[in-house]
Amino acid sequence: MDLKNRIKSLASSFVNDTIQIRRHLHANPELSFEEYNTMEYVSEQLSGLGLEFQKGVAGTGVVSLIKGKNPEKKIIALRADLDALPINEKNEVDYKSKVQGVMHACGHDVHTSSLLGAARILNEVKDQFEGTVKLIFQPGEEKTPGGASIMIKEGVLKNPSPTKIIGQHVMPQIPVGKVGFREGMYMASADELYVTVKGKGGHGAMPDFNIDPVIISAHILVALQQIVSRYSNPKVPCVLSFGKVIAEGATNVIPDQVYIEGTFRTMDEKWRADAHIKMKKMAEGIAESMGATCDFNIVKGYPFLVNEPVLTKKLKSFAVDYLGKDNVIDLDLWMAAEDFSYYSQEIDACFYRLGVRNEDKGITSSVHTPTFNIDESALEISIGLMAWLALNELKSA
Fold first, then answer.
1. Which of the residues 186, 259, 302, 352 is marked catalytic?
2. Residue of 76, 271, 266 lying closest to 185 (CA atoms)
3. Is 376 labeled as catalytic in the residue annotation?
4. What b/e readout covers 65-86, taking b as 16+ CB neighbours within 10 angstroms?
5. Amino acid 1: pLDDT
6. Mind listing the pLDDT tens digit for each residue in 44-64?
7. What is the third-level CATH fold of 191-300?
8. Domain extents in the chain
């Protein structure tokens, strides 16, 4: 049996165990940087494979090595994330979250179980490759500053140092059986905006006695859209959205202040820095001109994610070989953010998408929703493909 067919056979053999791992993780989710039980569970799984590991990296992360022949010849890394989201699950399934208000609504249970399944395959064929595969189980992808940034600071890309890193993410827009790749720029940077407009409250019937922060906030929100429509280069994707506005007044009460939260995303670091200055100056200037003040706080989040073109082109060709040309698609730019981007700023990286959608089964919900789920047949593809990509990358020049 050639290596590809052996990988497919092992993926078929291990998929039921991988499904059970995924269901255990799904039923027992933990929030960002609180993944203590998840860390222990992953450690137990690695121990069962006879692999050495280090746990507690970045608090709750786990790192392990699978060494083939001549382990120092080439080192690559595979990454999965551990954390869940503060969402109350509405799916009625046997493995529904047991934790009120916490759910694996972004598929990190899939990513972790997939990496464990791929590790099992790679461990079975370690006599057939040269080099080392570094397994990175990362906490806190969903929460700034991102577990990736902390793991990097704690040396996850050293001792030994991988030259490439590969990650995957579920995508409910892609049918099960297919995967997606994109060379070059793929995902946006993401910054959090926290704005407080302070005026002078009072009776709604006497606005001339007040400095109305509601009206001033409205002017600021409308004006800030010029950052995208009038100042940004139309060739550079850019998004500015505000999702929370709190003005605790009443029908006849003008409040003293308005609190606003939003996000700014783009794919150009110079423009990102310039936009920060423009947003702050514009908002503060409008408030001042209308007799109010504005505290405009920008929490700088994840950088943009870039898929190194040569690596991504190779991995895409390996995926075509494994799945067939019709099952490998090209991805569009994605304005969401991912802390895998930190790795992509340090070493050659590729972040691809795993199709999990099945309309016949009613599995169509987007990530970050209380009804998100996957067609679990994707796990056989996931573990086999990840192992296949790692093996071929180790063999490539």
1. 302
2. 266
3. yes
4. bbbbeebeebbbbbbbbbbbbe
5. 76
6. 999 999 999 999 999 999 999
7. Alpha-Beta Plaits (3.30.70)
8. 3-187+304-395, 191-300
